[in-house]
Amino acid sequence: MVKAKEKLNQLGKSLVEQAKKGENPNMDIPIRALSNVTYDQKKRMIMMGNKSSKRYLFNVAHIKKFLQTTEIAANVQKLLVAGKHVSLRQAFYMMRRTIPGTQIDVVEEQEESNKAVEDLELVRGFSREELNINANKNGSAAGKIIIKDKGDIIDWSKLGSGGWAIPSNTEDIEFKKVDAKFVIYMEKAAIWERLHEDRVWDKLNCIIISSQGQATRGIRRLLRRLNDEYKLPIYILVDNDPWGYYIYSVLKYGSIALANISEKLAIPSARLIGLTCEDVNKYGLKKYLIKFQKVDESRLNQIKNYEWFQSKDWQRELKEMKDQKGKVELDALVAKGVTFISDVYLPEKLKSKAFLD
Amino acid sequence: MVKAKEKLNQLGKSLVEQAKKGENPNMDIPIRALSNVTYDQKKRMIMMGNKSSKRYLFNVAHIKKFLQTTEIAANVQKLLVAGKHVSLRQAFYMMRRTIPGTQIDVVEEQEESNKAVEDLELVRGFSREELNINANKNGSAAGKIIIKDKGDIIDWSKLGSGGWAIPSNTEDIEFKKVDAKFVIYMEKAAIWERLHEDRVWDKLNCIIISSQGQATRGIRRLLRRLNDEYKLPIYILVDNDPWGYYIYSVLKYGSIALANISEKLAIPSARLIGLTCEDVNKYGLKKYLIKFQKVDESRLNQIKNYEWFQSKDWQRELKEMKDQKGKVELDALVAKGVTFISDVYLPEKLKSKAFLD
């Protein structure tokens, strides 16, 4: 955290120096737009380009945003000194003061404070976590790992039916003992409960993690760190539909909205463990097909055009899904037997290494 | 769990006996409609009345539903024997078989299997948890309590920044050591993280629990059991708006949709610890008022008419909110200082016992 404080100090000092030299104080702000985002083939990540624009204090069009960015910088400095964290919503309220001698509030809508936080991330290459501003909290974890967090030693294999509740910020977690050989991340808490009740993590020697829908930033950093620091393969388990595949792609390649921190969040080696169209055939799940709505079809077409889905394997997969004209949920595996996913599906997929990459 | 198995056996036997006697096999199904729901002043709970209707096997209008109810009963019996749980979605897939010799599926939409589960709950007075059918999983807990769950001893005061992830089903949790004097339930995970970082549960000697939005059934049963078995007061901490107050009312009085199990879920002694309109004034939060939309206003009017909000104190509170013409979020307390809610707001509320009941 010293690092973040220093970076903020540098920002403040550079503004003061500009003023002392009689210059118009300014900041370089990288452009956060689709035109400045590219897919890096080599890194296999969605990356931000290096276009930027200058923002000046003495410029009627810039001054409010300039003030908002320095205001959040000052508030974050306070958080860092106190060792406290706030949510984005709470950061909005921290900034909601009236400028003395005026009737003007520094921010009126959360959108403004969010943008200020984003700008600060871009100006100095922070991640939001380093700024002590937390994203959403969601998700559960269980498995063969012992961590240390806030001074507590926590064994993820001894947490009953609930598991460990994943915090919004997972930067400071220490991994003390990692017996797991891989991690399965799934988009659905109900599937997590299925695997957990069957003690899949014990039988297969792994870690199971879920949220509900898109993975939170806390979960993404946790997966990324387990992949970086312990070389654990990350397997993504989602529904056989465009939405599930998009969840996979965000975990693997990053996203357009957060292209600036793909290098901290993306996991290029992550692989899809299912549910694929091949699985749908092999395990006789066609019966449980749910017909695509228009919205599913257009999402599928979008995804099919993404640069990072252009490999032969993925194009074939998405073509098959298109021909299939419907989606199949992971829950449908229950029709084959309550513990089918744990006893048959996952062990077979792991043994045959039938992953989509 | 033996109890549920026996009840299911009784159901099966009674149907067989009716058939043997040459009667048309039938079940008594209590009517699940607003016309059969009342607010019980004495119990302070929303209760289901005793109107019911008969459902017959040999009746063209009844037979499909009759089959669906017995089908879910048979599937639940399998779950109970195996000691396994499924979600409502998974229960749907368990029931999705084609009737032999026909092209007809037992269920086609989840709505049908949900209704079958509900019917089974009503026919024999089960709760869904007893049927091994789980609701959603969500929420975190921390505080001065040690529990035993699935053979694991879990100390909620030693779980780092994440806390314990609350399972969808909390029936089998054992409370081993309860040092906490009360429980605070809050609707927002970000507020939970605020209180947890400030170690409020340690300073105030309590338990803190949150979900995101409405409490899950797992959380409601957990709160109810702590209230029943250890007489811990339950304090509800929500936004100062009609939606927050409704969350409070569901926890306290139960809901119309689940009136049949109010006696297992409702907590009539639960009290609102904030945010009240008085708090908004006292702590100078008027500045952070967010103007009501039409939808907020009509929700407020609805709530004001509910039988269980007719006390003098509540009518005054809701009148004040109407005059206030806007809502105030708990997050706004951060504007008074990051730890204001933990260091000032909650201790003062607890000391002055300024609860709405």
Task: Provide the fold topology.
The structure is a homodimer of 357-residue chains.
Chain A (H helix, E strand, L loop, with lengths): L1 H19 L5 E5 L6 E4 L4 E4 L3 E5 L6 H20 L3 E2 H7 L15 H15 L8 E2 L5 E4 L1 E5 L2 E4 L8 E2 L8 E5 L4 E4 L2 H9 L2 H4 L3 E4 L6 H14 L3 E4 L4 H12 L8 H4 L5 E4 L2 H6 L7 E2 L2 H12 L6 H13 L1 E2 L12 H13 L5
Helix pairs in contact in A: 1-2, 2-4, 3-4, 8-11, 11-12
Distance between the termini of chain A: 35 Å
Order of helices and strands of chain A: HEEEEHEHHEEEEEEEHHEHEHHEHEHHEH
Strands in their spatial order, largest beta sheet of chain A: 10-7-13-12-14-15
Separate helix tally of chain A: 13
CATH class bucket of the largest domain in chain A: Alpha Beta
What oligomeric state do the depicted chains represent?
A: homodimer
Largest sheet of chain A: 6 strands, mixed
Under the CATH scheme, the architecture of the largest domain in chain A is 3-Layer(aba) Sandwich
Helical residues, percent of chain A: 40-55%
Average pLDDT number of chain A = 95
The name of the CATH topology of the largest domain in chain A is Dna Topoisomerase Vi A Subunit, Chain: A, domain 2
* Number of self-contained structural domains of chain A: 2
Shape of chain A: globular
| Largest interface, C-beta within 8 A | A-B, 62 and 61 residues
Q: Roughly how many Å is the radius of gyration of chain A? A: 23 Å
Low-confidence stretches of chain A: none
Which range does the strand content of chain A fall in? 15-25%
Q: Give the strand tally of chain A.
A: 17
Structural class of chain A: alpha/beta
